[in-house]
């Protein structure tokens, strides 16, 4: 509480910044505060700190991801800009408190700079350096990858069963006489047609080296085992080309992007100053015993030096996943690749370019605002069982179940028939009998009983008049879609207060939200 008091007593100076806010809404470029005397894209100034159109666009993008603004009935741009002004005041207060120097803030911002710089490096060195797809490339890809392979496919649960049958094939046995049960076969596809790209990669490799009439070796796919016999190969049909063209272009671009990426990574590695202590690397027996990692966690020996940056054994251990499925060398090479890319991306100082500079500033503001909320506002919200009970008693009307209606319906195709039935019902005829005999609704067999419904579940014509009806009332004839319906209100269940234990999480969220808004405001 002392932390909050420390800053609340300075509220007068903090709030006085509102007097410095220069709100500048217009259709085109707008002038700054009169004292600035030049054109700017700023929409507002908060103590000299501009809120720009880019800031507004960024914030709207974040808001749209969080809550679909397209469904809002009214969107007041001036109110939204005032929200941004409030957020900027919080950011300025966080800066005044020095939160931008907190290690966690620096780490997040640096990580953001690296991530965005790597994306720009990828654009410069990869995307901008691959050629567009030519017509010849597209057609060749179609011819090579959409050939029709006619195959016999034998599938097995057990590799042993597959190998036994493969041995019989090699010995010249006629497998057409082998029973499915005897051979352990769980799947037989005879003469089925596949495109090469529709097969799993291991199957693609196996099939691509076969001549018609030949059998493949045993192929494993996701724990199952297959033997493939190639019957024949046909060129892809011309009339299917246009339907897959877009997919081919995407696949070709991905292949080129991967090839250029590998080439560029080789270039980076060749240009780097890289030294790996292979003796230490080969000595790390990380899977030998459970306590091996713990022993090495604080090992300060240098494992890798790359362009002046050092990775110690302990740091390498910290990078490893709980279960290691690749070798130490593969894991280390992955780290080296990422480090080379990060170093090169940072070396180019993309963060000094106007576009990324603005993105970094907006991200930093977002980080500082979150830190201020977490460190100054949230710690001052006290929540206890007694507080939540008091909040529950005060806001019981917000925690009532909706009204429920038990309803019967008769639905027919023609208005004349509906009017006839309605007259009979008004004169005392049995609703359930007419529902069973005449209704076209799915509930007809149950006497038209739809069961319990909330008002949100009712068809619109009934929803509009439901509040005028009471139990036992028959509705007028209502058109619902293409049918004419009559409803009987059987019962109405009044709203019920939800129990404290049932909605405790909702109470907590609602109370926290109200208290947060109160302190924030």
Computed over alpha carbons, the radius of gyration is: 36 Å
What is the number of E strands? 16
What percentage of amino acids are in beta strands?
15-25%
Q: Which class best fits the helix and strand makeup? A: alpha+beta
Mean pLDDT: 86
Q: Which spans have pLDDT < 50 for at least 5 consecutive residues?
A: 1-38
| Largest sheet descriptor | 4 strands, antiparallel
Number of helices: 20
Oligomer: single chain
Q: Name the shape in a single word.
A: extended
**In angstroms, what separates the terminal alpha carbons?**
17 Å
Task: Describe how the helices and strands are arranged.
Elements: H1 2-8, H2 11-15, E1 22-23, E2 30-31, E3 39-40, E4 42-46, E5 49-52, H3 53-66, H4 77-96, H5 103-125, H6 135-145, E6 148-156, H7 159-170, H8 180-183, E7 185-195, H9 201-208, E8 219-221, E9 224-234, H10 241-271, E10 274-276, H11 278-283, H12 292-296, E11 302-306, E12 309-312, H13 313-319, H14 328-347, H15 354-377, H16 385-394, E13 404-412, H17 415-426, H18 431-438, E14 449-454, H19 460-465, E15 478-480, E16 483-493, H20 500-520
Antiparallel strand pairs: 1-4, 2-3, 4-5, 6-7, 6-9, 8-9, 10-11, 11-12, 13-14, 13-16, 15-16
Helix pairs in contact: 4-15, 5-14, 5-15, 6-10, 16-20
Q: Key features?
A:
four-stranded antiparallel sheet, single chain, 521 residues, 20 helices, alpha+beta, disordered N terminus, 17% strand
Structure in words:
- By secondary structure, this protein is α+β, with helices and mostly antiparallel strands.
- It is built from 20 helices and 16 strands.
- Strand 2 and strand 3 form a beta hairpin.
- Helix 6 crosses helix 10.
- It is extended.
- The two termini are 17 Å apart.
- The N terminus is likely disordered.
């Amino acid at each position: 509480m002392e932390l909050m008091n420390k800053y609340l007593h300075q509220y007068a100076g903090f709030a006085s910044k509102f007097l410095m806010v220069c709100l500048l809404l217009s259709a085109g470029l707008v002038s700054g505060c009169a004292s600035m005397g030049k054109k700017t894209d700023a929409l507002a100034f908060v103590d000299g700190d501009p809120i720009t159109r880019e800031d507004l666009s960024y914030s709207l993008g974040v808001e749209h991801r969080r809550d679909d603004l397209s469904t809002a009935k009214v969107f007041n741009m001036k109110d939204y800009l005032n929200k941004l002004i409030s957020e900027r005041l919080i950011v300025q207060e966080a800066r005044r408190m020095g939160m931008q120097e907190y290690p966690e803030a620096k780490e997040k911002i640096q990580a953001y700079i690296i991530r965005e710089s790597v994306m720009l490096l990828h654009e410069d060195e990869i995307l901008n350096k691959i050629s567009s797809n030519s017509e010849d490339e597209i057609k060749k890809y179609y011819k090579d990858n959409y050939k029709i392979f006619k195959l016999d496919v034998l599938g097995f649960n057990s590799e042993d069963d597959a190998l036994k049958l493969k041995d019989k094939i090699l010995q010249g046995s006629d497998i057409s006489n082998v029973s499915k049960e005897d051979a352990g076969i769980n799947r037989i596809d005879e003469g089925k047609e596949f495109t090469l790209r529709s097969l799993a990669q291991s199957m693609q490799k196996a099939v691509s080296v076969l001549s018609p009439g030949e059998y493949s070796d045993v192929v494993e796919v996701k724990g199952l085992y297959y033997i493939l016999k190639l019957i024949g190969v046909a060129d892809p049909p011309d009339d299917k080309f246009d339907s897959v063209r877009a997919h081919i272009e995407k696949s070709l671009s991905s292949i080129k992007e991967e090839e250029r990426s590998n080439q560029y990574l080789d270039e980076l590695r060749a240009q780097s100053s890289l030294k790996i202590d292979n003796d230490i690397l080969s000595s790390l027996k990380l899977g030998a015993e459970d306590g091996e990692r713990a022993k090495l966690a604080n090992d300060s020996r240098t494992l890798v030096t790359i362009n002046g940056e050092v990775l110690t054994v302990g740091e390498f251990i910290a990078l490893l996943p709980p279960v290691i499925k690749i070798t130490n060398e593969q894991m280390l090479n992955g780290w080296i690749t990422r480090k080379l890319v990060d170093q090169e991306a940072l070396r180019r100082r993309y963060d000094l370019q106007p576009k990324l500079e603005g993105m970094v500033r907006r991200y930093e503001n977002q980080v500082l605002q979150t830190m201020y909320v977490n460190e100054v506002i949230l710690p001052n919200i006290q929540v206890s069982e007694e507080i939540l009970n008091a909040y529950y008693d005060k806001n019981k009307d917000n925690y009532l179940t909706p009204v429920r209606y038990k309803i019967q319906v008769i639905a027919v195709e023609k208005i004349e028939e509906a009017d006839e039935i309605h007259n009979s019902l008004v004169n005392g005829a049995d609703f359930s009998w007419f529902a069973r005999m005449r209704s076209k609704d799915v509930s007809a067999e149950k006497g038209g009983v739809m069961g319990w419904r909330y008002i949100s579940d009712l068809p619109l014509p009934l929803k509009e008049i439901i509040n005028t009806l009471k139990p036992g009332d028959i509705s007028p004839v209502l058109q619902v879609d293409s049918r004419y319906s009559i409803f009987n209100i059987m019962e109405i269940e009044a709203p019920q207060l939800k129990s404290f234990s049932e909605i405790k999480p909702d109470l907590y969220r609602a109370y926290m939200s109200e208290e947060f808004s109160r302190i924030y405001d």
